[in-house]
Design a protein that fits this description.
Length: 207
Amino acid sequence: MDPLWLFALFVFGIIVIPGMDMAYVLASSLVDGRRAGFSAVAGMVAGGVVHTLMGALGVGLLLRVVPGAFGAVLTAGALYVAWMGLGLWRHPATMARVELQDSRPAARTFTRAMATCLLNPKAYLFMVAVFPQFIRPEQGNVAAQAAAMGAIIALVQALVYGAVALGAAGVRERLARSERGQATMARAVAALLVATAAWALWTGWGG
């Protein structure tokens, strides 16, 4: 099988596993609707592009070689996601009057999504441990191969996270008739974000 197809399957297997990125896309769609969900997806894709560039420049290698740097990024990313979750838990009214239009600027959702993606240290390790294994210098221009693999990552992110955004936005529309259900969902989304952050810390430091 062509290495690019293998790479695509490998990337899909990683992205489809729930994590901080997926949790943020889900939360954005449930709280602010389909447009916000797609803004979050765009932010994740943009973050993935930056990951690819930084990995090519060796930043990912630095994070792997210097454990302190990895730990700092891991902690910052988890705390950032937990902070968003705690904010929603403390103010469930954010979702208690759900209307069928967005309540936050799409640019803010995009920026937060990109920050969440960039503060995910496992992506850097992926760029170091996996990405180079699929580069074949004997098959031609290495930069072109890296660009193709970066495009594959972006496409898989868009498809997987886009599906999550659509599904969550559909749930949100059904909740629009029930304020109590909206508040309950707000708490559930907040708990998901905090739990995801805790899991990231646990697996990063303990595992």
